[in-house]
Structure formats: C-alpha cells, structure tokens
C-alpha cells in the first residue's frame, strides 16, 4: 500500500504560492510560467571500524519560478515559501528574461504536453528512513561491520548510508499541478586488509534503490549472506595473482555493468549533450543526431530503454519537472540507436512532437535540465542463468562490483575496473585475480556482447550522485541489466599501466 505525501508538506500554501507566481508573471508579459516548491531532506551516517565517524541531517527547501518572455528564459528562486515572495520572484524572472533577450542566440519554445491537474504520487517504499532512530541506524551498520571485524583477514571496515526524501509541488500556466514524494537509499560496507601482501579492499555489491529503511533488512537484499562471504573473498583476493594482460572473454556482472551502461549509453544518449550543450563541462557525445536509426551501437542482442516508471528506480517519478508524464521508450533496439532522452525545450529544438519526460532539477535554486531516466539493458527472455553462463566460458574473467573508471569527452573510449575478478577455465571458477581493468570503445564493446543473461540474472543498479551542468547539479538514476558475456575484451594490468 502506497504512503501519502507528508502532512506538513501539504500544509504549506502550495496552490496559493504557485497561483500567485503564475498570475504575476503572466500579468508582466510571460507566455510560459512554471513554479516548483521543493523540500529535500538528506541523511548521512558513516562508521569506521563499527564506530560513528560522520552524521548529518539536512533539509533544503524553497521556491523556484521559471518563465519565457518573448522567447527568452528567466528564472528566480528563494528559500522563502510565501505568496509575497512568489510574486516578487515572478517579476524578477520576467525582468531577467527581458534583460537577457538581446543576448539570446535562439528563441526558446517548448513542445506541448497534456494537462494534468491536481495529481499526487508517492514512490514505493515501506519505512521512512527518517522515522528510524539514529541509534537504530548506527546499530545496524555497527552489527554488519562487527561481523566483518571478527575475521582475521579484515583489519578495518567502513560503513556508509545515505537516505533522501524528496518532495515537490509543480504547477504551470497551462493548468498542470502535481505533488510528488519519493524516497531513496544507498548503503555500502567495505572490508579492508593490510598485511604482508599490501593493501586490498572489497565492498558489498548492494546497489542504491528507491526503497526506504526496509532496504537494510534481508528481504530485498541479503546483507547477512553477503557480509558472511566477504572476508573469505577478501582473503583470497590478497593472495591472488596479478592479471596477465591480453584478450579474454569477460562475463560482466550487473553490479559492474550498470556503470558501463551509465557512462557509455546513458550520458551518450542525452540529446542536449549530443548537440553540444555540455561541451564546456563534461563533454559531448559520439552518438550525434545524424546517426539516429543508422548507428550500430552494439550487437543484435542489445535492447536498451529509457523508463521513468521502473519499480524502485532512482529516476522513477509520475511527472518530470516540466509537468510531463512518465514514459518508457526505446533508446537502442536490436543494436541500433533509435532514441534519445528529451526535455520540452530540446524536443522543440529538434522538431519532436513531445518530450519523453527527462527534465529534473536537484534544487529549487536550480533550473530543470535534461537528466537521465532509468536507462536499462533488457534481459534475454530465454537467456541462460548465471551458472550456465559461467559453465559456457572456456577461458575468461568474471568482473563484479564497480570501482574506478575513465571515459573520454565523447563517451567513446573507456576503461573500467571492479571489486572482484574471478578467473574461469573450462567452465569453472579457479580463483581470483587483481589489478584488472577492461578497455574498449563503446561500439566495439557493445558489439562484442555475445551472450545476454536471462531474467534470473537481472539486477537494478545505479548511481546516487550523477553530476551534470553548470552550475553543477546532482541526480540519482538506476540502470537495470542482466549479466552479459563479451567476446575477446582487452584486459589491462592496472599496476603495469601505472608504471609500477
């Protein structure tokens, strides 16, 4: 059963404030007005060796008003949520648009969207993490840490959890008004070994997701089972040989593959990036609009969607920050690039009929920009199990968990490392390796995907802190995927590459 939006947020003068801003801006000459009232609460707790290290609880609230006047943007915001402030911000935003108009290089327009009046939505979660006492949160992380510290192979532990409740009321001059509340959480536990074989670490594979504190039980993720096996895996890793560089078949586990999807597909198919809007900060994209419906992104087994409806997805909403209803669409179909991520402005700029709902702002002080939906690789409906995939490999490496990575400014040439690297010979895991990184170009890598796992291998992974834009904004996004096998991938030895 879904929860309700918190009563103290609904008690704010939401409609009165948005109506005042819209009315004042229209009277001053705005052809478009949208208003967001936001409140985001973020909790953070970290432990070192089962003892508290850092704790914070921060709430950010405010009001943002955006307008279009004679084809130019205007925006103003304030931490004060009141009718009087709304009117002042509306006039400031209009004045900003008028001032910037002579400097504008293009006319701003938005594609249309049906009107959604008085809509309310709350994400799927059971336990509000802010309803759990600080001591209970600490006890849970301390228990998991102490279970690791019982083992001789573990010298230190680091435990970290972050949990967010985001509330937004949106209204625009067309008549749409939406109120939404969503919750998300990320927890990581790391075991560290320091000994004769040097420094090694290994982290849990649990992913961030749109759950509440129920995520920290064992129903949705088996924390106890993972913590129980981590010391043995870490001890084996400390004694494992350094990888011999070369070409290997690679089975990439979803706990690693989500990040490759994020960097080489998610960012590459942001249409604002593909037409140059991020060039000054985080690069452009090789997947330019002229390649739509012609670029062979990967093998025919590759099917990738954008989806703002994914259950427990970090980017899941009912409506985006421009009042566009959540949708699901194809980005890559049978290996071919067929779609992009759009907001209303970019959709109009490239002559699309409708946005696919990818506008988001991380703060009332920031304007909405195009941000990732949940971008996911589909499982093969009749694909193999994980064990069957391992058994099919004659000479390869399994990679689990994410760690460091790099990718060029066109989202094309990349390399990724991981948490665990398991050597496979003749269908059997024969031990671990270390110092492993895989390197490829985006199209070569996805073109080499020769086996896609079945539904039983599918995991929803994701990022809690994806950055974009200037001024910088942070967004959370999920990437679901199955395990997959890639043919003859270039494996680097990270120690050798560093010249050590």
Automatic annotation (TrEMBL):
UniProt-listed Pfam families: PmbA_TldD_1st (PF01523), PmbA_TldD_3rd (PF19289)
Record keywords: Hydrolase, Metalloprotease, Protease
Domain Metalloprotease TldD/E N-terminal: 33-97
GO cellular component: cytosol
GO biological process, one term: proteolysis
Domain Metalloprotease TldD/E C-terminal, first and last residues per copy: 245-491
Gene3D superfamilies xref list: PmbA/TldD superfamily
InterPro entries: Metalloprtase-TldD/E_C, Metalloprtase-TldD/E_N, Peptidase_U62_metallo, TldD/PmbA_N, TldD/PmbA_sf
One of the record's GO molecular function terms: metallopeptidase activity
Protein family according to the UniProt entry: Belongs to the peptidase U62 family.
Protein name: Unannotated protein
Source organism of the structure: freshwater metagenome
